[in-house]
Amino acid sequence: MKAVVFDADGVIVSPKSWFTVPAEKIYGIPKAAFLEFIHGDFKRCTTGELELLEVLPTYLARWGVNISPQEFVAAWVKHEHHTDEKLLRQIQSIRQAGIPCYLGTNQERNRAAYMKKDMGFEAVLDGVFISSELGTRKPDEAFYQKVQAILELPAQDILFWDDAPANVEAARACGWEAKLFTPLAFARWFLRWQISSGKT
Does the reported pTM lie above 0.90? Predict the structure, then answer.
């Protein structure tokens, strides 16, 4: 293990609820309509094909939401600003042992910038790999290939944690050591790692 790559949402980022909840309760956007957007044009924003602030005005008008795209995005990222502090402390232990740790996540540019600065991931991780910057997203093979090329490591030397089975399977297909994240699964792995590395 020469590097560890962690997913964001559902792993390091764990809000009590996703933005679909306030989108419906506060702004009156039906959950089905918001999810249709997430799986449509928003998904294209996460590869950099579209820009969120450019596509949002049409949707806000359709949903009858009378605020600016910037205000909407600000409310969105703030609602989902909740990091797993215990996991981040464990990640620091791994880094202190000389193993760099990275973020590998599907994000559009605005939330990616928020994660780097406001959530502090640039400061507490060794690097951040963002789908909209790479031009490809998990579980596409190209995502893993581009990350691996930047890391300049053999595939088998990269450990990957993600809560989406499809992303884990895709990483394994690329030769990475990939594990499905649950808090319990990681806790067990972390304890074994501490014992094997003499960190306990």
Answer: yes
